[in-house]
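User: Can you model how C2G sits in this protein?
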Amino acid sequence: MRVITFGTFDIFHVGHLNILKRAKEHGDHLIVGISTDDLNFSKKARYPVCPQKSRAEIVDALACVDEVFFEESLELKREYIQQYNADILVMGDDWQGKFDDLKDICQVVYLPRTPSISTTELIEIVKER
Ligand code: C2G
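Assistant: Here's the modeled complex, given as structure tokens:
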């Protein structure tokens, strides 16, 4: 089974690692869409701390990840799922219900987020020190 997931993975942390490891448990090939710097800017009005090439290299180096590509638009999930022949879409439960319309082409699974860690909180902690 081919699993696909998406994310920014900026300032890579254990919450990111946990979801990728758990995503892989749903199949035998894990494909990760890394959101581009421009997609982040359009969504959050700021660029990620780490540029997309570095973020993709880090995720691609993980033992649980088989393949990465750049996610250029949030609206293209259906096309990416078809292009990469994914059987299962895994997303964190901060996206609960948001991708249910894709259930006609793949399974859609939402996994609980790891509590008490996020890129935004890490940025705040580093700023305070
Ligand atoms: N995550 C998690 N636990 C945390 C933090 C993040 O499980 N404490 C998960 C998120 O739910 C997501 C993945 O890690 O599934 C990547 O998180 P982000 O980098 O914040 O990705 P995001 O900006 O939500 O993705 O199409 C989606 C876009 O690419 C944006």
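A couple of observations from the model: The two ends are 45 Å apart (CA to CA). Residues 14-24 form the longest helix (11 residues).
User: Helpful, thanks.
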